[in-house]
Design a protein that fits this description.
single chain, Rossmann fold, about 45% helix
Length: about 130
C-alpha cells in the first residue's frame, strides 16, 4: 500500500468543503488539505505540492481563476490536475486553465468523484 494521495480542496463554503471531504473519505484514505480562499490555496501548494486540486472559482479575495493561474506558475504547479468545483459554466472552468470541472449542485457526488479520481489519480485505484 502506497502513501495516500494528497488532495487540496479550495472552497469558501464550509458546508461544501465538509461534504466534499466526507465523500472523498468514503472513497479512499486520502491526505486531504483544505483552503477557504485562493491565497491560502497558493500558500498550501507552495508548502507542499498536492496530487490533485478541487477548486471553487467564485472564491473571495483571490478568486479561483487567479489562484489557478498562480498555482500553474509555481514549481510543479503545471503538472497538478486541477478540477473546478463550481456552479459556473464548464467553459469558465476550462478558461481558468483547470483540467476538468464538476458542476454544482451535484446529485450523486460519490459517483462523480470516483470518475474524476479514476481519471486524474490512476494510482488511487491501486491503493485500495
Amino acid at each position: 500500500m502506497g502513501k495516500p494521495k494528497k488532495i487540496l480542496i479550495v472552497e469558501d463554503n464550509e458546508d461544501c468543503r465538509f461534504i466534499l471531504v466526507r465523500r472523498l473519505r468514503k472513497i479512499d484514505q486520502f491526505d486531504i488539505r483544505e483552503a477557504a480562499d485562493g491565497q491560502h490555496a497558493i500558500d498550501a501548494v507552495r508548502a507542499e505540492l498536492p496530487d490533485l486540486i478541487f477548486i471553487d472559482l467564485g472564491l473571495p479575495g483571490v478568486n479561483g481563476w487567479e489562484a489557478t493561474r498562480r498555482i500553474r506558475q509555481l514549481p510543479g504547479g503545471d503538472r497538478v490536475p486541477i478540477i473546478a468545483y463550481t456552479a459556473r459554466a464548464m467553459q469558465w472552468a476550462l478558461d481558468a486553465d483547470c483540467d476538468d470541472y464538476i458542476a454544482k449542485p451535484v446529485m450523486n457526488l460519490c459517483v462523480v468523484l470516483r470518475e474524476k479520481l479514476e481519471r486524474w489519480l490512476p494510482a488511487a485505484e491501486e491503493a485500495r
